[in-house]
Task: inverse folding
């Protein structure tokens, strides 16, 4: 969820860098649009924290409309997955740097599945 918008859904945050995060329709998870960087990291981390609180068995993170994720944004994703009580996180349609960073720093992290 977008920290500036609460549980309500999509909305821009933080000046020039824009990140919109909202719930997925019909399945547990979040959808993000924009970029995940130093300027947008607080709402990204808040959305991931909300996802972890609501996690059951599989949670989805849809990133097809995200143009860029910095290393710290990928780290927040990995740390969230590691903290899940069980199950897994499916990251759908991420920018190319996401699977590369996951493979470099968290090889074999079974809690995250990257779906092209």
Result:
């Amino acid at each position: 969820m977008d920290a500036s918008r609460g549980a309500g859904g999509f909305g821009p945050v933080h000046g020039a860098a824009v990140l919109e995060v909202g719930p997925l329709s019909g399945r547990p998870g979040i959808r993000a649009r924009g970029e995940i960087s130093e300027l947008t990291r607080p709402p990204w981390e808040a959305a991931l924290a909300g996802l972890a609180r609501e996690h059951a068995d599989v949670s989805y993170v849809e990133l097809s409309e995200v143009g860029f994720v910095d290393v710290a944004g990928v780290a927040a994703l990995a740390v969230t997955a590691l903290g899940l009580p069980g199950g897994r996180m499916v990251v759908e349609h991420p920018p190319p740097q996401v699977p590369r960073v996951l493979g470099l720093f968290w090889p074999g992290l079974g809690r995250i599945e990257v779906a092209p």
User: Anything to note?
Assistant: The two ends are 23 Å apart (CA to CA). DSSP finds three helices and five strands in the chain. The mean pLDDT is 88. Strands lie at 19-23, 29-36, 58-69, 88-92, 112-115.
